[in-house]
Amino acid sequence: MQRRLFIAFVGLLPFVAAAQQAETPTRAAGAKERAFLSSLPAAPLTVVNQERALALATLPLSCVDHPQSLPEGRVDYLWAHDDKPRMIEGYDKSRVFYGCSDWHSAVHSLWALVYVAKQYPQIPVAALVRDRLKDHLGKKNVEGEIEFLKGAKRFEIPYGYAWVLKLYAELKTWEDPDAKTWTENLAKYLKRWWPTTRTCAIRSAAACIRIRRM
User: Fold this and answer.
1) What is the mean pLDDT of residues 1-21?
2) N or C: which end of the chain has fewer CB within 10 A?
3) How far apart are CA 211 and CA 191, in angstroms?
């Protein structure tokens, strides 16, 4: 037994030496980065107040209702492919993330609107934001999205899926009656998407546990 352990130890020595040699350039690079960062002048952090939040909300508000253009690759999310591509009928009642430049940008934009409304409830566009969230995160919209997912395989996994988790977390922690309804709707969506991933898309055990408990 001791002989086997000794042989195994000797066999590992080249790998240990190689790892140590590889670690040296990494440490040197890290030291250079730290030196560079310490040489930069101090910069004050930007304070996000209601005025800045209003400016941040303008972009997602301008695009969440604007349907995405026909993508270069064949994606049946918003477009049907018959003799020639056409936008599906009633997309605004059967899809959630149909706006902006692409699908994951629409997810990110809805998250931004939730965050702004949550942090600044008195913001002048609060009612408009709520209307948009109500339109996109309604029960029928989510049901249509779930129907699409049945044949979507690994659509937008992992990047888009990670943003849906972020949106869900933002809604889940919002003490608001409307947010509770939207959270419940989105939870159904995540439950349907979860089996298609097999493993957690963002490699987060905490996120996996949260979804399994929905």
Assistant:
1) 48
2) N
3) 7
Range of the structural domain that residue 133 is part of: 51-212
Residue 19 included in any domain: no
Task: Show the tokens assigned to 180.
Answer: 């509770």
Six token digits for residue 164: 């849906």
SS3 (DSSP) at 133: helix
Tens digit of each residue's pLDDT (9 = 90 or more) over 7-16: 444 444 454 4
Give the pLDDT band (50/70/90) at residue 130.
very high
169-183 confidence digits (pLDDT tens)? 999 999 999 999 999
Evaluate whether residue 174 is within a structural domain.
Answer: yes
Q: CB–CB of 173/117 below 8 Å?
A: no
Q: Which residues contact 135 (CB under 8 A, 6 or more apart)?
A: 65, 92, 141
* Residue among 92, 99, 97, 96 nearest 66 (CA): 99
Q: Is residue 150 part of a domain?
A: yes
**Residue with the two structure tokens 């977390």:** 169
Query: Looking at 49-58, 87-96, 185-194, which range is the least confident one?
Result: 185-194
Domains: count for the chain: 1
Using CA atoms, how far apart are residues 31 and 17, in angstroms rounded to an integer?
22
**Alpha carbons 132 and 113: distance in angstroms, whole number:** 9
